[in-house]
Design a protein that fits this description.
Elements lengths: L7 H6 L1 H4 L34 E3 L4 E3 L2 E3 L1 E6 L7 H13 L4 E5 L2 H4 L14 H11 L2 E5 L29 H18 L11 E5 L11 H16 L6 E5 L20 E7 L21 H4 L5 E7 L16 H7 L2 H13 L2 E10 L32 H13 L7 E2 L5 E2 L11 E7 L6 E7 L5 E7 L2 E7 L3 E10 L4 E5 L2 E8 L2 E8 L4 E7 L5 E6 L3 E5 L2 E7 L3 E7 L7 E7 H4 L2 E6 L2 E6 L3 E8 L2 E7 L7 E3 L6 E4 L6 E3 L5 E3 L17 E5 L14 E2 L30 E7 L7 E8 L4 E6 L2 E7 L13 E8 L2 H5 L4 E8 L18 E8 L6 E5 L17 H5 L12 E3 L9 E12 L4 E10 L6 E7 L2 E7 L7 E4 L7 E12 L9 E11 L13
Bound molecules: 1-methylethyl 1-thio-beta-D-galactopyranoside (IPT).
EC number: 3.2.1.23
InterPro entries: Betagal_dom2, Betagal_dom2_sf, BetaGal_dom3, BetaGal_dom3_sf, BetaGal_jelly_roll_dom, Galactose-bd-like_sf, GH, Gly_Hdrlase_35_cat
Protein name: beta-galactosidase
């Protein structure tokens, strides 16, 4: 083997000349002018400069350059630890995303009308600043309605008791909307990319608004939102996400106040993995609805495309498998099959919902879903990269380094067969052929919609080639593509990256391990070819260099001469190897790093590349950088490196993996029972009297009853207590308690301190889970013994009312009642005087959705500063019997190495027949609801920051038991969900003790 002449000393010798710090970007990589338009060379940021944000029918145009927005949906409100926002955003950026899409949830920021809070975990400005610092564009989606599987679809609880019809032009509703938009836009306006304040490039109005599309109720509403957002200084293009490709709210369908060309059409799609990917792009093939042609002047824009799916209570969507089922049914191959089809259909603004799902903590989740919102997303709830990030990384890197993909026309179909002379239709193969009209680079997307693997016969650049197409998978191939100073004739492997580093071009191709690949380069004369790693065969004839290799790890082939003075390093990487290649752009040109599990940042200082990132197992560290680079810093350490024949610097020793993380057992539990509200003598004189006669709820007030709906008395989240006083029970044989909750609601009742029983809403199945209202009547018999007791009497009722319905269909369903609706007696009709009590004032730090109205919550038993001195010492497992509420508290200390990012969860398990549920408070933060006999969630992620990984923590569990079975907890333990050496610095989240 002949070692490359491009030795380290040659590199170092040109240091002074080669480094162009602060220069114009791509390091002169494409000086020959083969790339006409491209994305901005460096990542975007809050640079204080003016930028233009426009579009044409092909793509977004940022500062006049075409950019495919490759976006992942992330919700800051689903990760209550601002430091970790940077972790998630850096992971996405490193994996090839250039954009994030962000809902802002009105309810999360507004405890009461006129009150808007953007501090602490609600610091939207900090989130947007972090996105800009990470180099990500932002698509902002502040509603006012967002859906998103959150309480009331994002509407604040207080809005449920206001007059006016939501999601219409009703002025009563619009007045509140304006209040919200004023507040959120005040933050957003500081982070627009137009003036370099930040990186917001698109802004969404409303969400999947499918009603009133032709009536003034809808049109005036949309026109109002448009005008209001503009009046608030939002000057980036606006859009709406159509619920499917229907052409609703396309440009021209409502009044944009004389503005033209500043509004886009977008649509959402959540195809089932069992269907063939739909053709619904701007090429207009295959689809039946009007979206393809509704907006011919705007680029193909998938505002949401399913990257997973949510799982309702009971795990009904994935047959109890939970989010593992979501990730399994929408796996890496699903992503290639569906997202490459989208690109082939001309989609140029692409957003994957969700890319990091996170946690619907506290009372945030809509009643349909449980606490975890993992979503089966590419980055899991514990912030760990999953195999689904690999295809996203490959495609994202490709879009970044091959801007030819931002401008595509359809090209004539090419011949594709099943490899044995049969037709592609018979073999279930779909082929798309596209061309960039300027560079003449051609792209082919080949898709196999059948489960069997095939080897397809394809004509690529006029040559008949065999391409492996695994079952239910797809790949993108390029022909006539510039690789810098050489041109690719074709490759049967998918291109992933091209860049110029030092004095060579680098091109990366990728595919599944074990696949045979043929890569053909145009080379006027025979080049010198050196196989530096792996095995590959090569021949040169008729101006073409052919390289054959089987994919396995990383195959490196150095091509020198043969018509260009610039060497080309060809890297053929299987999926696993491709997931260890990290490209970062610096002002002096790109840096490519191989080895670590993650490279978060890369900066050039002098001739040293400073890298930050993560390792899990011991890893190589290999760096290709701009000319003259001669040193590497990894997370502040300075590994010794040597120059390689590949033109890189390689650390002489592997980077160490992550040290073991030890977690303590949870012990020394303290216990106390509550619900004094159920006792006859409890003093409720400070509670609110429930005597209203009318309500703005969509639930009718039953004749002869006072309004008992919790929201009407200002109790919008969590549990609510009622006490009904009456004088005489004679004749009463039963009591009927009508109530409305979301799924999983329940009610428990006591008469004069004696339990009457517990009634639960049925566990939903696949069909009923999406039903709008959960209303039921519980009838409890009154035994003669109870009936005989002397008055006055008191009926105590606790309702776990769950959350407000979403309002997806714009029918005010978020205004359905929560809590009791009517109380009658069999055999008697006593007059009841009602008092009601829910959550005390909103937690000023943890926000309005953190706690409800349990006695312990009102007394601060969930808070870390509460002194549980008099509580009883107990051990788990527990088997307490009785209807009602009790609490368990313990403390534990962690001592995780500050250089280790450990993701820790709390796991509860017990005999599934036991009817009880647990609310989990960590340091006062309500991190979720466990329902032992419903599931499917057993492990709850404890986000670092809320979790003190270096010190003391307080865990409080509020257990609500039906009384029909013994109640746990059974086992409660800390679980290590993942760990990495590296991570980001974590600032403790404020957790007031009392
Ligand atoms: C679409 C919503 O826009 C989004 O907020 C979220 O609810 C998502 O679905 C599902 O997770 S609604 C569409 C699937 C009908």
């Amino acid at each position: 083997m002949v070692l490359s002449r491009r030795t380290f000393s040659a590199l170092a010798g040109t240091a002074a000349l080669g480094l162009t710090l602060g220069g114009s970007g791509d390091g002169g990589a494409y000086a020959v002018g083969t790339v006409p338009t491209g994305p901005a060379p460096g990542p975007p940021g809050a640079d204080g400069r003016r930028h233009t944000i426009g579009f044409d029918s092909y793509s977004m145009l940022i500062d006049g350059r075409r950019v495919v927005l490759w976006s992942g949906e992330v919700h800051p409100f689903r990760l209550p630890s601002p430091s970790l926002w940077r972790d998630v955003l850096q992971k996405l950026r490193a994996h090839g995303y250039n954009t994030i899409s962000v809902y802002v949830s009105w309810n999360f920021h507004s405890p009461a009308p006129g009150h808007y809070d953007f501090t602490g975990v609600r610091d939207l400005g900090l989130f947007l600043r972090t996105a800009a610092e990470t180099g990500l564009y932002v698509i902002l989606r502040p509603g006012p309605y967002i859906n998103a599987e959150v309480d009331a679809g994002g509407f604040p609880g207080w809005l449920t008791v206001t007059p006016g019809t939501a999601r219409t032009s009703d002025p009563a509703y619009l007045a509140y909307v304006d209040e919200w938009l004023t507040a959120v836009n005040r933050v957003a306006a500081r982070h627009l990319h137009t003036d370099g304040g930040g990186t917001i490039v698109l802004y969404q109005l409303e969400n999947e608004y499918a009603n009133n599309v032709t009536s003034p109720l809808g049109r005036d509403y949309m026109a109002h939102l448009y005008a209001k957002v503009r009046a608030d200084g939002i000057d980036v293009p606006l859009f709406h996400n159509d619920k499917g490709r229907n052409g609703h709210w396309a440009p021209g369908t409502f009044d944009t106040h004389g503005e033209r060309g500043r509004y886009l059409y977008g649509f959402d799609g959540y195809p089932s993995p069992s269907e063939a990917p739909p053709d619904w792009g701007y090429f207009g093939v295959g689809g039946t609805k009007g979206g393809a042609t509704a907006s011919p002047g705007t680029p193909g824009f998938l505002a949401e495309f399913g990257g997973g799916w949510f799982d309702p209570w009971g795990g009904v969507e994935f047959d109890g498998e939970g989010y593992a089922g979501s990730a399994r049914t929408r796996d890496a191959a699903y992503e290639r099959r569906f997202y490459l089809t989208n690109l082939a259909n001309g989609i140029k603004v692409h957003n994957v919902y969700m890319t990091f799902g996170g946690t619907s903590w506290g009372w945030l989740p809509a009643p349909v879903v449980y606490t975890s919102y993992d979503y089966g997303a590419a980055l899991d709830e514990a912030r760990r990269p999953t195999p689904k990030l690999v295809p996203m990384h490959q495609i994202g890197q490709l879009l970044h380094s091959v801007p030819d993909l931002a401008k595509l026309d359809r090209a004539p179909d090419v011949a594709v067969g099943d490899g044995s002379g049969g037709s592609r239709a018979d073999a279930g193969i779909t082929a798309y052929h596209l061309v960039n009209p300027d560079t003449r680079a051609h792209f082919h997307v080949l898709r196999n919609d059948r489960p069997a693997d095939v080897v397809a016969g394809v004509t690529l650049a006029g040559e008949s080639v065999r391409v492996a197409l695994p079952g239910l998978d797809a790949r993108l191939l390029a022909t006539g593509l510039s690789l810098g100073r050489r041109t690719l004739r074709y490759s049967t492997a998918q291109p992933m990256m091209r860049l110029a580093a030092g004095r060579q071009d680098i091109a990366v191709f990728t595919g599944r391990a074990g696949e045979p690949t043929w890569t053909v380069l145009e080379c006027a004369s025979a080049p010198k070819v050196t196989v530096l790693e792996g095995s590959a065969r090569h021949t040169h004839a008729h101006g073409l260099l052919r390289i054959d290799a089987e994919l396995g790890g990383l195959t490196r082939v150095l091509v020198e001469g043969g018509g260009s003075t610039t060497p080309l390093l060809l890297l053929l990487a299987d999926d696993a190897a491709s997931a260890r290649l990290w490209r970062h752009d610096t002002p002096s040109g790109p840096v490519l790093v191989r080895g670590p599990a993650l490279v978060r940042t890369a900066d050039l200082r002098g001739t040293t590349v400073h890298l930050t990132g993560d390792t899990v197992t011991a890893a190589d560290l290999e760096v290709w950088g701009p000319r003259g680079v001669n040193g590497v810093v990894w997370n502040k350490g300075t590994p010794r490196t040597r120059a390689t024949a590949s033109g890189s610097l390689l650390a002489e020793r592997r980077l160490p993996g992550v040290p073991a993380v030890k977690l303590p057992a949870l012990a020394k539990w303290r216990h106390r029972a509550e619900n004094p509200e159920s006792t006859a003598g409890f003093d409720d004189s400070a509670w609110r009297t429930a005597d209203r006669r009318s309500s703005h709820s969509v639930t009718p007030v039953p004749a002869g009853q006072p309004v008992l709906f919790a929201d009407d008395y200002g109790f919008h989240y969590g549990d609510v207590w009622y006490r009904g006083h009456f004088a005489d029970m004679s004749g009463a044989e039963s009591v009927n308690l009508s109530y409305v909750t979301g799924t999983q609601g329940l009610l428990m009742a006591w008469l004069d301190g004696k339990p009457l029983g517990t009634h639960r809403m049925p566990v939903p199945d696949k069909k009923t889970v999406r039903q709008g209202t959960w209303a039921a009547t519980a009838t409890f018999p009154i035994t003669p013994e109870v009936r005989r007791a002397k008055g006055p009497h008191v009926l105590s009722v606790l309702v776990r009312r769950m959350q407000h319905d979403e309002d997806g269909a714009a029918r005010d369903t978020h205004k359905a009642a929560r809590g009791l609706t009517a109380v009658t007696f069999g055999g008697a009709a006593p007059a009841l005087r009602w008092r009601i009590q829910g959550a005390a004032a909103a937690d000023p730090v943890r926000g309005p959705l953190n706690h409800g109205g349990l006695y312990g919550e009102r007394q601060g038993w969930h808070l870390p500063g509460f002194a549980e001195g008099g509580w009883q010492s107990v051990e788990f497992p527990r088997a307490r019997r009785g209807q009602g509420v009790c609490w368990y508290r313990t403390g534990f200390r962690l001592a995780v190495d500050p250089a280790v990012d450990a993701s820790i969860g709390l796991t509860l398990a017990d005999d599934p027949s036991r009817a009880y549920r647990v609310q989990i408070f960590l340091n006062g933060w309500n991190l979720g609801q466990y329902i032992n006999d419903v599931g499917p969630q057993h492990t709850f992620v404890l986000p670092n920051g809320v979790l003190n990984t270096r010190g003391a923590n307080t865990l409080a569990l509020a257990v609500l038991a039906d009384g029909t079975t013994p109640a746990g907890p059974g086992t409660v333990r800390l679980t290590l969900l993942g760990s990495a050496a590296g991570g980001v610095p974590v600032t403790p989240v404020d957790s007031p003790g009392r």
